[in-house]
Amino acid sequence: LSESEILVKFKSSLSNSDEGALGKWGKDINLPPCKGGNVSNWGDAVVCEGGSVTGLILENMGLSGTIDVDTLKALPNLRILSFINNKFEGPIPELKKLNRLKNIFLSKNGFSGEIPGDAFSGMIGLKKLYLSNNKFTGPIPSSLPTLPKLMDLKLNGNQFSGQIPDFQQKSLAKFDVSNNALEGPIPVGLISRKNPDFLFSVGVLVLASVLGVVMVMMRRGRKQQPPLSVEAPPSNLGIKAGLKEEDHSSASTHSRNGNGKKAEAATKLCFVRDDRESFDLADLLKASAEILGSGSFGSSYKTALPSGAEMVVKRYKQMNNVGKEEFQEHMRRIGRLNHDNLLPLVAYYYRKEEKLLVADFVHRGSLAVHLHGYQSLGQPPLDWPTRLKIVKGVAKGLGYLYKELPSLIAPHGHLKSSNILLNQSLEPLISDYALIPVINQESAQDLMVAYKSPEYAQHGRITKKTDIWALGVLILEVLTGKFPANFLHKGKASEDQDLATWVKSVVGEDMSGADQVFDKDMGATNNNAQAEMLKLLNIALTCCELDVDKRLEMKLALDQIEGLQDPKEDEDFYSSVASDAGDKRSSRGMSDDFSL
Ligand SMILES: Nc1ncnc2c1ncn2[C@@H]1O[C@H](COP(=O)(O)OP(=O)(O)OP(=O)(O)O)[C@@H](O)[C@H]1O
């Protein structure tokens, strides 16, 4: 069978598959699912690599019926299967027949029953398994602790019972078994993990194992309590974010008392990740909102959930480029991205005329503020090691976007220092990425960074290297402390002069003037640090090459940035003649000395 025939056969065992993305499948059986390369002919639900099907992403489609693994066996390159948020019921499919799968996502369905102990035997490549929020019962399958590559396991929100087996895999980085009926001690292998990033969630289990069944009973009892009555005061956010009063009240009441399904749907937040607590607009609207700033597209507001978690809601008016279904698909695609240097999208709210995107609030604010307005933060300026760390993190995040979103010409599209947020340890989190496909074309061309690139100015088009130009400009901003926008539209004489042109003109061909462009706020540095700064300056300038052919490729830029030497732990990177700014700091690290 051809790949087309296999997929059509697979689809025939599903119910509810004639609408939405699957409706298109097989309409023209001569059109193969993959075009060649990584491009799918059949829409986002089919992931292609090297011209053949490597993944099926069938999420939020109301699907039920049978997942026909025997048919899927005929796709030799299939690595990812996702059926998140559908209506599948009954026992788990016999996934081990697809023993080359790397990622399996079955969360938010109605799968039930015990999973056989050997259900995952032999799946030696399996890295991610999400079974959250189904109705599975019985013990956690004994084959799971034997999988050598398992990295991310989510079993939360089921009725798994018995004890947690001892997971010894070093690869395991995320583990969530919260909200089950598990009991007994937490295995030593899990408690004693050395990797600092290990995310381990047993939810109430710890309490349950200490206090016994009583706690579990209490928890169940709590679940059955009548919903809280909501008397949310009209919130600033509701008004500021342009939600009509009726939307606001329906978000507060209907979603709570179960009435008015239509109104509820109209005000429901759509969650794009299954690893986050759910909340609704009413929860966001309860606290009064603080405006963080107004960007090109609208304003961003900070508000807090009843749990205390602080969230940011960004309002977009110019986001009508695509229809509802395509918009939702794109949001889900963004929601699947997962990288330490990307700010995850948590949820969105869709209305024809406007959209709200919800993300976590990042406490130290943007790189732009740290570079240009640090005095207002009452903090010392960023030092060289921190700037280097930020550049490395941004490059990694951007590299990941390139890898994960190969079909986008500019996978970020709006890279600039106000879209780089800094967490507590001053690690960068890139935000506002991958939005070009959903922003109105005209607004995108007017407002987005990609469209300020030299190639757009010269030839009216952006290319695969446009984000690299933006990265180059961002690095120059980091190194010089100069705000790129100040170099644009500065009157006639300098109209074609951007930050890169200015830097080039000052440093000269032989780079002898480099000292004059480096931001003095980084402090005086020793020779090693200066050599690395110079290398970074060179990389940035090559990223900014006007001639796209001469500009660095993403992979090369990443490798070169990654190769820069971090100041050694035991090395005092400041020279003895510290500048004023340098004097204000302790000798290194800085970040931990700040208090916000
Ligand atoms: N999740 C967040 N946590 C903390 N600060 C944020 C967050 N999102 C945005 N901000 C800050 O809020 C301000 C307004 O952000 P917004 O994204 O609305 O505009 P912008 O980034 O300046 O411009 P643009 O709309 O072109 O992206 C910026 O200073 C931004 O750094």
Q: How would you describe this protein?
A:
It is built from 21 helices and 25 strands. With 596 residues, the protein is of the alpha/beta class. It has an 8-stranded mixed sheet, with no helix packed on it. A hairpin with a 2-residue loop joins strand 4 and strand 5. Helix 5 crosses helix 6 (213-224), helix 8 crosses helix 9 and helix 14 runs antiparallel to helix 17. The longest helix is centred in the middle third of the chain and has 21 residues, at 384-404. Mean pLDDT is 80; it is low at 202-260, 489-495 and 574-596. The protein binds adenosine-5'-triphosphate (ATP). Adenosine-5'-triphosphate (ATP) binds next to strand 19, strand 20 and strand 21. It is found in: Membrane. GO terms for molecular function: ATP binding; protein serine/threonine kinase activity.
How would the blueprint of this fold be written?
Blueprint: H1 3-12, E1 14-15, H2 20-23, E2 34-36, E3 39-40, E4 46-49, E5 52-57, E6 64-65, H3 69-72, E7 80-82, E8 89-90, E9 103-105, E10 110-114, E11 128-130, E12 135-138, E13 152-154, E14 159-162, E15 174-176, E16 181-182, H4 188-191, E17 199-201, H5 205-211, H6 213-224, H7 236-240, H8 245-257, H9 261-267, E18 270-271, H10 281-286, E19 290-294, E20 299-304, E21 310-316, H11 324-335, E22 345-351, E23 354-360, H12 367-372, H13 374-377, H14 384-404, E24 420-422, E25 428-430, H15 441-447, H16 454-459, H17 466-480, H18 499-507, H19 527-543, H20 554-562, H21 580-583
Parallel strand pairs: 5-7, 7-9, 8-10, 9-11, 10-12, 11-13, 12-14, 13-15, 14-16, 15-17
Antiparallel strand pairs: 1-6, 2-3, 4-5, 18-22, 19-20, 20-21, 21-23, 22-23, 24-25
The site of adenosine-5'-triphosphate has 21 residues, from strand 19, strand 20 and strand 21.
Organism: Corchorus olitorius
Domain Protein kinase: 286-574
Enzyme class: transferase
